[in-house]
Every structure is written in structure tokens, then in C-alpha cells.
Amino acid sequence: MSTGEARRPIVIRRKKVVHRHHGGSWKIALADFMTALMALFLVMWILSVASPEQREGVAEYFRTPLVTAITGGSGSAQTSNVIPGGGPDPVHSEGERARLDMRAQTRPSDVQRNFFTDLQRRIESALQEDPELRHLRSQMRFDMTREGLRIQLLDTDQRPMFDVGSDRVAPYMRNLLRTMAPLLNELDNDLSIGGHTDSTPFAGGYRGYSNWELSNDRANASRRELVAGGFDSGKLLRVSGFADRVPLPDLNPQDPANRRIELLLLFPDVSEQIRSPSLINGPGMPSPAARLGGEVDLAPVEAFQQSLRQALGGEAGPGATP
């Protein structure tokens, strides 16, 4: 090592580190996230303990457009810009609100739902105890509709409920209906019976005895078996035949399951509507012209009347008496 290299000073460079403040923006973001998460859990908990009617009311409130709520449902702005709450619904007319109220009335209450669930359990138990009826459980469907509890008795090629093209009840079908009769009798709900067929037509089509008569005859045959089993005929409200016009969804119209009997335990409101149907233009209901907002243009009607008169051989003018 040379003398010059030995005398060279050693330089140590130190980097000055400045600790700067990073701010608290991440804390704000975390607090917002936790607040939103807590609000989500609160909403989920409230909805889990709310009744179906309360949930429907909340859903209907949030369906109201903001602009409509602010303006009160009209084209002109109101003096107050506060969204109304607790008063009349600003987005629906009287007729629409009546439709919503009717839908709420036909919704099953918890008591009715419990009664129907208990009835289904009792019917299934009765079938399970009878060796002859046990295998028929696969041909039954229970579901809740807007009219009430629906019990469908489905047909199969292996176990048909009626003779082919006839309303003669098979022995096990007769036993099934008479077993169900006293159980249906325990509820105060009215009963509606509907008969259905597949789309296979009779040889004469619809001019003579057809699926219309067959479906109605089978519904009446089921009614007779229920009454013979002890069902109170005073609770029977409707017997109908639907032919092949209401097939089961996602099934071929010729599927044997479409040959079925439908027992419908009606809600009290539905029974009242069947007994006392209201007129469309009854008291308090506006006329068609009023619903359209004024006078109705009768020119198309008069033109149709004129063409009809000419087709019938008359040459009278629009003002002539037909």
C-alpha cells in the first residue's frame, strides 16, 4: 500500500430520514366500511323478525320513485320538498291502491298457514297408516295459492283415478277421498273442486261429449265421494270443469298428470268474492269516459255501425235509426 493511499480520509455519508405524517384517510375509510357493515346486519335482523305484511310495506315504500314522491304524484312541483310519509300513497291511484289492499287481504295469515300446514300433516299421516293409500302420496301435491290451499290428485297410467274416458271412480281413489273428507271438514274454509283432463280429444271433438263434460263429471263424482265420506256439503262452494285448458307447467299437454282433481280450500275473502262479485262500474266507480280523462271519440264506433248496416242490406246514414 502506498503512502498516498494510506493518508486518504474515509468519508461516511449519512442519509437524513425525515418522518412525515401519513394522514388518517385509511381510518375514515375503515370507519365507513364498518358503519355500512353494521347497517347491513341491522337491516337483515329487522327483516328477519318482521311480518310478511311489514316487509311488503317496506318494499312498496322503496318502489316509490323519488321524483314522484317529492312532487306528490303530479306534474307540478309542490310547495314542500319533503318526501311525504305516513299519509296517502303518492304513486298509486285509488284503483291501484285497492288492488294492493286486495292482494294483502288474500295473503294467508300466520293462523291460516298453520291450519293448512297441520291439515297437510294430518292427511299425510292418515295415508301413511293405510297400506292401500300409502303409495298414493306420490300422486298428491300440496301448495299455497292466492285463493287458498290447493290439493292436487294427479293421475298416472299405472294408477288411474278414473276409468278411461269415464267419471267412474277407481276404488283406491274412492277410499282416498272418503279418508280425506272428515279431515277437510275440520276447517271452516269453503271448498272448491276442479276437474282437469289431458289434451287427448274424444272422437267427436267438442261437438258432442268432450273433455269439458268429462272434467266436470269427474269433479262432481269427486264431490259425491267426499260427501259420502262425511264432508259437509254446506261448505262446498264451487264445482268446475276446466277440460284441458289449464295444463300443469313444464309438462306435455298429453301427460297423464294433467288428468287431475283439484281440491281448493278457499280463504274467507276469496269465498266472499265468489258469493258477492262486485260490478266493474258499480257505485263509486268512474265510467270508462271518466277513467280516460274526458270525452271518448265515438267515430270508430259509428263507422263500425255504418258498415254493419250496409252488410245487413241497409243504406241508412249515420244518423238513421237501425
Low-confidence stretches: 73-88, 90-106, 316-322
Helix/strand structural class: alpha+beta
* Strand order, largest beta sheet: 1-2-5-3-4
Question: Cα distance, first to last residue?
Answer: 136 Å
Query: Helical segment tally?
Result: 11
Q: Report the sheet with the most strands, covering strand number, pairing sense and barrel closure.
A: 5 strands, mixed
> How much helicity do the residues have?
40-55%
Radius of gyration: 36 Å
The string of secondary-structure elements, in order, is HHHHHHEEHEHEEHHH
Morphology call: elongated
Task: State which percent range the strand residues make up.
Answer: 5-15%
Number of strands: 5
What is the mean pLDDT?
79
Structural commentary:
It is a single chain. The chain contains 11 helices and 5 strands; from the N terminus they run ααααααββαβαββααα. By secondary structure, it is α+β, with helices and mostly antiparallel strands. The protein has a 5-stranded mixed beta sheet with strand order 1-2-5-3-4.
Write the layout of secondary structure elements.
Layout: H1 3-7, H2 25-49, H3 52-63, H4 66-71, H5 94-105, H6 110-129, E1 140-144, E2 148-154, H7 171-184, E3 191-196, H8 211-228, E4 236-241, E5 260-266, H9 268-275, H10 288-291, H11 299-311
Parallel strand pairs: 3-4
Antiparallel strand pairs: 1-2, 2-5, 3-5
